[in-house]
Write a structure and sequence with these properties.
alpha+beta; Nuclear Transport Factor 2, Chain: A; 4 helices; globular
């Protein structure tokens, strides 16, 4: 696989993650992580301990949030994809604007950056580590 094809496959994984989030599909969302993946930055934003590790904890963290939403949309600007020499791991940074509408409540807007570590698995590229750096979080009426 060429470097261009590898970067396209990594971009597809990042965008697929956002698509699963937009469908509020926790099973598809969780599948974009390796079974031992770690997430930083999201739990602390929700007032919970860090890090979130593995599929079970990831689903337990995100499911309640998905359950209270009418809809969610993520817009990504993927930058800095760096592929390891062996082509089996990579890092990426993604600028994120997320807008979500809560049931019976206002809209949430998050501007943030994800810094990612990914691995090539038999199911394609998956996150092994995802760190969210919130830049602005706003709740609208």
């Amino acid at each position: 696989m060429s470097q261009w094809e590898t970067k396209a496959a990594i971009s597809e994984a990042i965008n697929g993650y956002s698509g699963a989030a937009g469908r509020l599909d926790i099973k598809a969302f969780t599948a974009f992580f390796t079974t031992d993946a770690e997430i930083y930055g999201v739990a602390s934003l929700l007032g919970k301990p860090e890090p979130t590790k593995g599929h079970e904890q990831i689903a337990a963290l995100f499911s309640p949030s998905f359950d209270v939403l009418e809809w969610l949309q993520q817009q990504n600007t993927i930058t800095d994809i760096v592929i390891s020499a062996d082509g089996k791991t990579a890092t990426a940074s993604t600028g994120l604007i997320e807008t979500a509408k809560r049931k019976n409540a206002g809209t949430i807007i998050l501007t943030a950056r994800y810094d990612d570590e990914l691995a090539l698995t038999d199911k394609g590229w998956r996150f092994t580590k995802r760190k969210l750096t919130p830049l602005r979080f706003q709740q609208l009426e």
